[in-house]
Each structure stands twice: as structure tokens, then as C-alpha cells.
Amino acid sequence: TAQQSRLDGFFKPK
Amino acid sequence: MLESRLEQADLLKKVVEAISGLVNDCNFDCNDSGIALQAMDNSHVALVSMMLKAEAFSPYRCDRNIALGINLSSLTKVLRAAQSSDILTLKAEDAPDVVNLVFESSEKDRISEYDLKLMDIDQEHLGIPETEYAASISMPSNEFQRICKDLMNISESVSIECTKEGVKFAAAGDIGTGSVTLKQHSNVDKPEQSVEIDLSEPVALSFSLKYLVNFTKATSLASKVKLSLSNEVPLLVEYELSGGNSSYLRFYLAPKIGD
Q: In this structure, how many other beta carbons lie within 10 angstroms of the beta carbon of residue B79?
């Protein structure tokens, strides 16, 4: 089944 | 200091209602361009980003950067005291312990005044890269809400597939499957009913419906919603706020990956 990804992998802290 | 006056308390009431299911505490960052907010949900799957431009207020004054750390359930309690059509004024000192909210009825001679205690919130800001999305879909916000709610009865996930034929929302669950397909069409008499699809390449992604349904709590803020997608990047769900001054409420949702 599909795994829920996290936003941390896409958006980095400024 | 901050002093900002909104013609309709309803706008802030609805924004707070729309985001309080995702976020408990967050900073309202005030500066001379307006009031901004960025916060992730606890599981780091969804992010809300709000911008209320100075032009959305009349008048608006904020001389320096002020972060108002607010517990949203406390703010909700205070905002319950505001009638939707009340004029709402937010005020804060430069290094504030409280934010002052004043609700004025234009019809009755009533002025309500509340001070809400602020909290220190150590919140990291995420850089959201400017993205050229492969597909963007502009559609009636109530239609999007309806589709998400209907498909949540079938499954916890929805696949969104956008091709030049249209956009297909599909769900598969224990009881069976369901899908809704929308084709591009323009309604000249009621432009808010139009569906516009801007596609540079086909996209297919899956998302959690629980989050999407949560985002659609913003439906009453705007007649249209814009979905922006690219393969393997977060979905952007955007509602325009208060007509034409580029104020917005945006939600980002991380996709489900691998099947």
C-alpha cells in the first residue's frame, strides 16, 4: 500500500 | 505597534475555524505588509500558509515585526464573542504579552473588548520553493468539498489524475470504488461555476482524504479553489481571501508514495 510521505523531505527550514 | 481593522470579523473567524483542525498553536507574524502565518500539523504531513495583506484591512498599521504566539482554541473562544458582521480591530504593543481584540457592531452601539494572552512559540519557518506546477485546476470550492466528502465514504485515500481530458478523483476501498471526473468548462453567467484546467504534463498522485476534507473547512471563504499538482511533490490547495488583494489561505499536503 502507498506510504504517507512527510513534508520535511520537500520543504527545508529557512 | 500593531493596529489593524477588519470590516468583517467573519473573515478571521472563518480562517481560524479552517486551520484549527490542523494546528493548535502558531505565530501570527505581523509586519508592514500584513499578517502572515505558517504552520505544520503535528505529523508533518500538511502545512498551512496564510497571508492577510495590509490592503485587506482599513486601516492597517504595523511599524515593526511582531510575532503573536496564539493558541487557536483560545482564539476561537474569544472570536465566538464576535458577530460575523462586527468590525474587528486587532491591537498589540511592540513586545506584547497580549493581543487586544475589539468587536464593534455597526448597527448597535456595542463595543466588546478582549485581551488574549500570548505564548512564546519557537517555530521554524520552512522555505517553500517556487514551483512551476505540471497541472493546476480551478474549480468551485463547494464541488471540491463535496467530492472529498463523498469519496471519503469509500476510502481513506484519493488519487487525483489530471490529463488533457479532465481531472479524475478516484477512490478504492473495501466496499467498492468510486470516481468523479470533471472536464474543463466555462460558465459565462456564473464564472464561479467554471472548471479551468491548465496542464503542461499529465499528473497522477494519491493523497489522504482526511487532510483534504480538513482543508475544505475553508470552503465558505472563497467560491473557488485552486489545486496545483506536480508528480511527487506536495499538493497545493489555495483559497483566495477577501477579493483581489492577493490575500490567501494555502494548504500543502505531502503525497502518498509507492503502491
A: 23
